[in-house]
Amino acid sequence: MNHSDLRAKAPSLAAGMAAADHSPDVQLSQTRHRAALVASWQIAPGSTVLELGCGQGDMTAVLAEAVGPNGRVIAIDVAEPSYGSPVTLGESAARLGAGPLGSRIDFRFGTDIRDPSVNFRENTFDHVVLAHCSWYFASLGQLLDTLVRVRPWARRLWFTEWDLTPASGDQLAHLLAVLIQGQVEAAGSHGQGNVRTPFSREGLLRLLPEAGWTADGGRSVDTEDLQDGDWEIAACLDLVGPEERLATLPEPVRQLVLSQADVLRSIAKPRGNRALAAYSVTAS
After folding, report:
1. What phi and psi values does residue 81 have, to the nearest 5 degrees?
2. Which of 18, 48, 215, 272 could form a Cys-Cys staple with 95, CB 3.0–4.6 A?
3. Can you tell me the distance from the alpha carbon of 194 to that of 130, in angstroms, rounded to the nearest whole number?
4. Tens of pLDDT, residues 244-283
């Protein structure tokens, strides 16, 4: 399926998402972003895809459209179906399951791919996808273990994440919000923030060979219309707001975080903050 065909279907795909009931314009921009990504990947009709960190299924829906009626997407997330607001993962999955793409998707929530009970035969999947989910891993070690685990199961990896290197000054607020959350996590306040383990594109490229993958392509990805900058700034300021949330941090780290939060408040706009760019890496 080419770029124009899949992108043209973005409005109907977005309308099928439960979150569209609350924010139709936001859902459309998020779906268009993922449609552009998948259209640039080599996912043919009839493919089998393992998606890790599927969340509410923004990417899942696009992948299900790309693989067609004879394809299959197994979408896995460690979170429980009750997680998420204003729409839970379970509610979003139920909406997709009841729609025209439902027969192509197998959602598996509350599932850690590293658990020995989760297993597939060698080359079960044509593709494994991680899209905007890796910063939620508890550590780079956990990500490495995951990439090692799935290596025998799939022929090709498609990986997309935010790029820590800002292209312009108006992306600095998003960057700072991400780095503050990462510092809080690294200093011991585990699981409090939205982002847990931000790492660079170069960090991923160093990690892939350790996991048995060979990167064979990559590119920058436009994120001009996405709202994630606003979301991460809000998540960061919420994290540092209640003083007790930072009480477990070493005092020098706590003061550093509070000072950086002061800078963030001074440079962030009330809304419409420009998101960092993203990158896409392919590996086999």
Report:
1. -60, -20
2. 18
3. 17
4. 778 889 999 999 999 999 999 999 999 999 999 999 999 9
Both tokens assigned to 11: 């409005």
* Residue of 150, 76, 69, 65 lying closest to 107 (CA atoms): 76
Q: How many Cα atoms are found within 13 Å in the side-chain-facing hemisphere of 37?
A: 30
The Cα–Cα gap between 14 and 6 comes to 12
Partners of 281 in the beta sheet?
Answer: 159, 218
The alpha-helical segments, DSSP class H, found in the chain are 3-8, 10-15, 24-40, 58-67, 89-98, 140-150, 172-186, 201-210, 228-240, 251-267
Map residue 69 onto helix, strand or coil: coil
Cβ 279 vs Cβ 201: under 8 Å: yes
Report cis status (omega within 30 of 0) of the bond before 11.
no
Which one, of 165, 161, 163, lies nearest residue 134 by Cα?
161
DSSP 194-224: S------HHHHHHHHHHTT--EEEEEEE--T
pTM metric for this prediction: 0.94
Per DSSP, the three-state class of 166 is coil
Instruction: List all residues 6 or more positions away from 171 whose beta carbon is below 8 Å from its beta carbon.
Output: 229, 274, 275, 276, 277
Per the CB < 8 A criterion, the answer to whether 228 and 272 are in contact is no
Count of H helices and E strands in the chain? 10, 7
Residues in the chain where the model's pLDDT stays below 70: 1-4
